[in-house]
Write a structure and sequence with these properties.
With 171 residues, the protein is an alpha+beta fold. It contains 4 helices and 4 strands. Strands 1-2-3-4 form a 4-stranded mixed β-sheet. The longest helix is centred in the C-terminal third of the chain and has 35 residues. It is flat and about 55 Å long. The termini are far apart. The mean pLDDT is 85.
Length: 171
Amino acid sequence: MANGLISPDRRRLLLTAALLPLAGCGFQPVYGEGSPASDLLGQVAIATVAGNARTAYFMREQLVRRLGRAPTDPAYNLRAGVEMTTRGAAIAQDNEITRYSVLGNAEWELWRSGTAEPVATGLVESATSYSATESTFATRTAGRDAERRLAVDLAERIVIGVSLAAADLAA
């Protein structure tokens, strides 16, 4: 160890030693080759997301980006609905709102094609915020960006839920 730094060889050894316990417990990457979650990629048709049009669009686009475009005869269908609320989070002495919080939740259901009951469901929640400025345009732009960030985060949380449910679906 020179100057308080760990050598590359020692770092590699420590990393390998840290990962050894995971090998014995059956740890498998979610999207590892042959994993149930990787088998879902490109096999899930994403329905139109219910909710505010702009937010629903961003959420659906992220879901498609992460789960892939489904063929014309998909194995699964994913339905989701999103709700968002915006509220003032910080108020100045002159009663002007200087910061907003955007809270969102999304319910989702995964259906095996041709079945009447969902095989997995979930509810995800997230929050973000943005600052108000002197400019109405800048504040609206920041608000729209916050909605987009929230929609993308909610979609990521849905993908995690679907990925975790994939192991049960494979069984």
